[in-house]
Amino acid sequence: MNIIKLNAIDSTNSYIKENAVKNNFESFTVVLAEKQTSGRGQLGTVWESEQGKNLTFSILIKFLDFKITQQFYLSMAVSLAVLVVLKKQFEATFYIKWPNDILADKDKVAGILIENSIVGNFIKNSVIGIGLNVNQTNFSKEIEHVTSLKNISSVEIDKEKLLIDVVNSIEYFVEFIYRKEFLKLKEMYMNTLYKYKIPAMFVDKNNTVFMGKIVNISVEGQLVIELENEKTRKFNLKEIKFASR
Ligand code: BTN
């Protein structure tokens, strides 16, 4: 495993994007930072993480034959990879919250940011950024519903070992993509999906609150919700949120 360890960097995702081609990084190169000065989250958010306490890292994965239309399977593979490691080692109920947040019970313990470089209809280089809350125990009051593995287990966790376990697990789940076993990935993902088939309140982009239940994920990775009138609607990430936990 090729791990580049940095003390401080703006963002490990940005570091790989800026250096991978120039420095000919091999597939599965891992970049780990003790501190990110501009850690990035989904939808342009900031990823905050106390220096030295957590895992903030990115992995470069190169593909030869991975169609853009199949890109959500990578999100499935990576979130499953993280979830499976946590499930084996910690006592909590872990879920994947669509599209790829990892929850411990109802609180977020890890987030994933995938950035792809595309040539024609294919994904060539994928940068998988993972922020996993490990040994941080205090979070700013503005960030709600967040936890860490130490908060769950009450013990200090060996970050290095956990990193290796997660990277190995990502290699294992990415193999499903190489073998084009997409349906297997989807089945495993759906089995761990937060609030799957359970009535829940959602808020759409117009701030309308409505009841519905998640019944599927479309091929494009959209959330498919069955409304109370039994019609289904598909939503992109920007278009929907849970109204409550
Ligand atoms: C999210 O849930 O919003 C995704 C968070 C992803 C954070 C990680 S930390 C390592 C990598 N570098 C970044 O700038 N972001 C990702």
TrEMBL record:
Record-linked Pfam families: BPL_LplA_LipB
Domain BPL/LPL catalytic: residue ranges: 1-178
PROSITE patterns, sorted: BPL_LPL_CATALYTIC
Gene Ontology molecular functions: biotin--[biotin carboxyl-carrier protein] ligase activity
InterPro entries linked to this entry: aa-tRNA-synth_II/BPL/LPL (IPR045864), Biotin_CoA_COase_ligase (IPR004408), BPL_LPL_catalytic (IPR004143)
One cellular-component annotation, GO: cytoplasm
Keywords on record: Ligase
PANTHER family in the cross-refs: BIOTIN PROTEIN LIGASE (PTHR12835), BIOTIN--PROTEIN LIGASE (PTHR12835:SF5)
Protein name: BirA family transcriptional regulator, biotin operon repressor / biotin-[acetyl-CoA-carboxylase] ligase
Species this protein is from: Lutibacter maritimus
Organism lineage string: Bacteria, Pseudomonadati, Bacteroidota, Flavobacteriia, Flavobacteriales
